[in-house]
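S.,

Sequence below, as promised.
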Amino acid sequence: MPGLTQLYQRLRTNTNDDIEFRKTAQGLLDMLHTIESLYHDAMKVKLEDPEKIEETRRLIEEWDKEINLAEKDLRRGILVAVTGLESGMGNIARYMNLMRIVNDAERIGDYTKNIFRILSRKPDLLSGDDLALFERHKEWLLQVFPRIYTAWKYDDHASAERMYHEASRQAKECDAILFGLMDDPSRHPSPAALALLFRHQKRLLRHIANIATFIYMPYREDNPFEAH
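The prediction came back faster than expected:
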């Protein structure tokens, strides 16, 4: 099945529809860049430094406002564009794909904020194997955004599919933590906080997987990879 870029190029004839679509797609990429900055700032803070935590909290609030504005503008732009389309159901379908990716992107920002709030309130929450797993996930997430941009730009199905499987595998690792705490909550002094942290991490990873899915198989309406 052709990916997003090939399908868009096939429909692209420099009509007004195409110009508006490219503008909207660029707005989504800009939103993802902002979310990347939010994640970087949230995960790089030194949790033992209260001043840095407060500074990062203010930065996250600013990034969050920018993301929310971008989301509203994109949703409004997509709805306006769809109502004014000059041609074809194919154009409607590609806008609907963008709308779903906008939702996934916004949720990544929300879960990043939630993870930061937990870690800033409980800086000693993670240790041992839990810390090692979270750090491995974090390093992967810090470098996955440029991979998303590249896969989208060059219609790299293989790279997008790898990202999907990597994100899904890590989400299952979060499940293992959650089920482990269900079986034996006494293994951690703050089981509720640890479970909440890895629940947010799992959902963040699932939304990354969704975005990767839409790069390499964009036109499935019964998408089996919906975040859950």
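The first helix runs from residue 4 to 11.

Coffee later?
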